[in-house]
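Many introductory courses stop at the sequence. We go one step further.
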Amino acid sequence: MSKLVLDLTQSAPKVQSLEEAQQLIERLWQLLADLSQRQAELEERLSTSSENSSQPPSQDSPKQRAERPAKKPTGRAKGAQAGHEKHERALLAESEVDRIERYYPLSHCACGGEIVMDGYRRHQVFDLPEVRFHVVEHRCFQGRCAACKARVSAALPDDVPSGQMGPGLIAWISLLNSQYHLSLRQLESLLTEQWQLTFSLGAISEAQAPVVDWLLPVYQQIGDQVRGAVLAHADETSHFRGKSRYWLWSLSTPQAAYFMVHYSRGKQAAQALLGDFGGILVTDRHGAYNEYDVDRHQYCWAHIIRNLEKIAQRVGQAGEDGAYLLRLARLVVHCGKRWQHSGCQSLLYRRRLQRLRQHFQVTLERAATTHGDTRTGHACRKLLRDSPRLWTFLKYQGVPMTNNAAEQSLRPYVIWRKISFFTQSHRGNQFRPMMLSLIETCKRLKVNVYQALRTICRQGGMAERVSFRLPFPALACLPPASGA
């Protein structure tokens, strides 16, 4: 008998025998299974959020944002709590005060007695002065030789900028455009309102052009410092320049943050970011970093938990296995934090972590075998391949279990991207990572970023080699964990 072909565009087929009826039932059953699987995949895709994937919270739908679990109420009133440490502004020394006004009481009390002075109460008021721009006119005289009639003109000294903007103004424009996210049009308005200066949009944009070259030595210093560290966090996110998509890569440490723009999100870009870095690398599960040494690579457990959240939301045995793996992962994070808070000296929590590691591995192997060639099976096998990168924190003391530090270093960039058109030129793709690297590194070193940028602009504007360097502390070594 010829095979029955199911054509849903036609009317229901008429079967002539029990065999044809059985064939039709099997075909319909297979179609129903395919549709059910497809429906499950689409529902899972719709339910993907920042809670169960690497999707940033800003891309969650309004419904997903409304369904986010609320923080448990603490029962305490808003504001400062009783017994908290006060943070009051300290009074400046008299040598730092611009003017002192003195006030005295009446010479005699209401009872008729004479008032004898024995002290005073200090009250300081801070205010902003009226600001006005500062202009220096440079006159280059010229003349003619009485003998040969040659024309001779004086030249500007090396420390005088060739343009109309000095280093303080260029640094101020660059800082407001980058750290404080002001657009060029907003800068044009602010210059007029606050400083009574009128510069065109083109002039403000061109003033930032040489800053890229001036920042290069300090930018390279930051990159060398980060790549020489014993521990660093890496992450990446995208932006558009016109219709082209680019990626901003970040490699950060507690002392520095290095940013780089690349057209790719692949292994080539990751290698360009890492360079000769040889320390412990903490990342999410992005495959571009998988060329790095397994023994010095730590995956973020927060990303692992989000991936297991997606499996736990599935129906049937897959959801049950995902929920069990999710509980194990949360126990790992709980015990890991307790172990690290003990200075990695607690043998109790280390033994618990070793047992959890073994149990997690066995559960993954069983789930991978049970679910075979399904989404859950593939996810479990990928976790098994990534398993060595999950437990690097047990080998070295001080290795964090999450990649939160990298995501925090990218946050100013993400805010900058959301409230502006971001970059529209190649020069913008150079300017932004350099400025972000300087700003975030100065924050970590507690260095005044405006003064640093002003010094860089002053040295660069004098047509001399920029000698300014950031004061990095000496690099430390990462000790092995106790019992490793």
